[in-house]
Amino acid sequence: MSAGVAPRDPARRRWLGGALALAAAAMARRAGAVSLPPCAAAAAWPAWQAFVARHVQDDGRVVDFATPDLRSTSEGQSYALFFALVDNDPLLFERVLGWTRHNLMGGNAYDSLPAWLWGRAGDGQWRVLDQNNATDADLWIAYTLLEAGRLWERRGYTSAGLRKLQLARQSLIAEVPGLGPMLLPGRTGFHDGKRWTFNPSYVPLQLLRRFAAVDSKGPWRALAASSARMISGSAPVGFAADWIAWDGRAFGIDPAKGSTGSYDAIRVYLWAGMLDAKEPLRAALLRDLSGPAQMLRAQGKFAEKIDVVHGVGTGAAPVGFAAALLPYLAALGEGEPLKTQQQRIPAATTPAADALPYYERNLVLFGQGWLENRYRFSADGRLLPAWRSRPCSATT
Q1: Does 75 participate in catalysis according to the annotation?
Q2: Does pLDDT of 391 surpass 60?
Q3: Which of 177, 194, 223, 239 is the most buried (most CB within 10 A)?
Q4: What is the pLDDT of residue 144?
Q5: Is 153 one of the catalytic residues?
Q6: Which of 87, 89, 94, 136 is catalytic?
Q7: pLDDT interval class at 107 (50, 70, 90)
Q8: Catalytic residue, candidates 64, 75, 94, 360
Q9: So what's the pLDDT on residue 111?
Q10: The pTM is what?
């Protein structure tokens, strides 16, 4: 297991990272482990490079330095895998996957879902702090393994991704009265016998479309429809909630978490904005999530927290929210609000960008990276990274 937080000396990190990369590349060539398509160089991505320098240790652990336990989460590991694939960096991908497998899955990548939380415990030891899973991270890990297998022609990744889908089918999908198949946010703690609890940001439809294409016997197509119904049905005035409840008849406020839409809900608009124009559920979903666009037009700014029942916002929205709204505003053709939100995001190499916390930087990578055409999702959920469509030059 990782011995905590690696030294943050940039020079040492560059040297050690380069040495590890060269050694791994040599081993991969000898073993024939990495097979990349021709002309596969990715364009420089300063925001991702800055994130790696700050938050990704040399062993592949992603650290949230803003937390007292210096935690790592399955969410953070899953996002890093995705961005490493978008950046066409198989060596970093393997390091992140290796740390995730050994520390969150007990070394068993095929027969377990990762624990969601790892960090420094009260006794000073570094270990898993909560064995429960986080379903959104599990979906992103399965998806990224499948797409890494396809894009990098690595059958082992494809097999691992399919196994993750099988585990999700066995552990995380419930037949919910009045809704049909639904993904629970985790294995335990989300059904008390009377009420079901869901998180609308945990079910990007792109991922479910891809799962339906590769696992036709699974309930993924039905899950996409029921998830879209959940998102729309729980946004009565156009704003997504962080958490919602279902009592068998209607969606309502989760009594434990309240009527707030904030740091979780911002991803609902992000995922919806990145849907392909041919996605049949896209138009209705964007219509039912009209709240942010209306607020920006009326007030010129978004809020950190939204009362999703009354549509009233409080607090200044952080920079990461501006980035998350970019695909959503682009999909709606909201040119002026889009420009305003773009201007809020600092350049990747500035101190202001470096000061952004872990979660906001992830939102910047997703939203701004999409707007910069670094990746897209097809209607059937395939990842379309820019490096796969970049033409060959005389030097490649």
Answers
A1: yes
A2: no
A3: 239
A4: 98
A5: no
A6: 136
A7: confident
A8: 75
A9: 77
A10: 0.90
